[in-house]
């Protein structure tokens, strides 16, 4: 079964806490099967057996997610792979494909399992807005269900064994996807990001490690998984996200002191450009959408709320790259989506 590009992930709806600034929260667990080498060292037969075992174990998840489906990455089109990345359902490494790689996900993308990425399993939950505790509880439930049928690699001394030393221990990464356009517009962004780093988290681009920031979208996530209980990891990310949330809202309030003239003008120019684009690179598209989303979040755009802006972000198709054909298709998608939107005059 192939992913449906019209079935947008649930986080796009904006139906969660603090979604004016925080698009989504993700909790992800890295797990490996004890009897198999890590994916990088496994042969095709071993990877296929891992995929079979995980698919079988995931039937236990269907009592809460009856629409769960299994996707073989090698059979997906470029557009379908790009959609999984933009929807945050799969990682950039996963969608590149390879032996035995599958993605098991529910239609709303709240729960997904990547198989044979860097680790045998990457179990993740993605919820709208700031919801680290709820995302952790969901992924913890899924982990318990899978652990009842799978034999994980585990050390009494170190915890769960993973392909990367940075994930050893709990194997838990919690992250919040934040839109920090107000801080960028008031030129306070770099200072606030440095302060967040000093509080023990990492701040990365929208697509995780080694990705560049675009559209003022940033992932705030824990750096350490070893030696910290899950509850402390969840609380640390929540605390730093709350700090950046407060700073972003203060910046937005300042931008509204004169009625929001600057963000309104920026959004108006951005929408004019989006509506007339014939070709556009992904980073430029996200930059334009960022201005629209900021204005929408503070009530400066008619017939556009953050959910539509989020939908524009998913429509960028960043994983499709910036080849001429992809840039033309991206522009066509964005033109269609902004037809009903206009800035408040």
Quick description:
With about 350 residues, the protein is an alpha+beta fold. The protein has 2 domains: about 10-250, Glutamine synthetase/guanido kinase, catalytic domain (Creatine Kinase, Chain A, domain 2, 2-Layer Sandwich); about 260-345. It has 11 helices and 12 strands.
Layout of helices and strands:
Layout (H helix, E strand, L loop, with lengths): L21 E10 L12 H14 L11 E4 L5 H9 L5 H4 L6 E4 L5 E5 L5 E8 L3 H16 L6 E2 L3 E2 L11 E8 L1 H5 L3 H10 L2 E4 L12 E6 L7 H26 L5 H16 L5 H16 L3 E2 L3 H10 L8 H14 L4 E2 L2
Antiparallel strand pairs: 1-5, 1-8, 2-3, 3-4, 4-5, 6-7, 8-10, 9-10, 11-12
Structural write-up:
This protein has 345 residues and is α+β, with helices and mostly antiparallel strands. It folds into two domains: 10-251, Creatine Kinase, Chain A, domain 2; 261-343. It has eleven helices and twelve strands. The radius of gyration is 20 Å and the shape is globular. Residues 1-5 have low confidence and may be disordered.
């Amino acid at each position: 079964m192939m992913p449906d590009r019209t079935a947008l992930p649930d986080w796009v709806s904006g139906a969660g806490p603090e979604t004016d600034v925080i698009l989504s929260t993700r909790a992800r667990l890295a797990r490996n099967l004890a009897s198999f080498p890590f994916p990088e060292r496994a042969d095709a037969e071993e990877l296929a057996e891992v995929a079979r075992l995980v698919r079988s174990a995931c039937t236990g998840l269907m009592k809460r997610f009856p629409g769960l489906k299994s996707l073989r990455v090698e059979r997906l089109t470029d557009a379908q792979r790009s959609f999984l990345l933009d929807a945050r359902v799969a990682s950039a490494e996963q969608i590149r494909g390879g032996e035995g790689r599958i993605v098991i996900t529910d239609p709303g993308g709240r729960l997904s399992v990547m198989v044979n990425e860097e680790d045998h399993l990457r179990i993740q939950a993605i919820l709208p807005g700031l919801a680290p505790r709820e995302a952790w509880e969901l992924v913890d439930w899924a982990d318990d269900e899978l652990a009842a049928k799978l034999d994980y690699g585990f050390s009494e001394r170190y915890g769960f064994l993973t392909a990367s030393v940075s994930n050893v221990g709990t194997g838990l990464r919690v992250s919040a996807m934040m839109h920090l356009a107000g801080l960028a517009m008031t030129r306070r962004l770099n200072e606030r990001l440095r302060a967040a780093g000093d509080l023990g988290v990492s701040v990365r681009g929208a697509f995780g490690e080694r990705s560049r920031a675009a559209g003022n979208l940033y992932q705030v996530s824990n750096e350490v998984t070893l030696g910290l209980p899950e509850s402390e990891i969840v609380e640390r990310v929540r605390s730093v996200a709350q700090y950046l949330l407060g700073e972003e809202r203060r910046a937005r309030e300042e931008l509204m002191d004169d009625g929001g003239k600057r963000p309104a003008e920026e959004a108006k120019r951005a929408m004019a450009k989006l509506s007339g684009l014939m070709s556009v690179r992904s980073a430029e598209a996200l930059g334009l959408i960022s201005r629209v989303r900021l204005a929408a979040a503070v009530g400066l755009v008619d017939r556009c709320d953050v959910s539509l802006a989020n939908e524009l972000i998913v429509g960028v198709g960043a994983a499709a790259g910036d080849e001429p054909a992809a840039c033309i298709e991206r522009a066509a998608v964005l033109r269609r989506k902004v037809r009903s939107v206009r800035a408040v005059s």
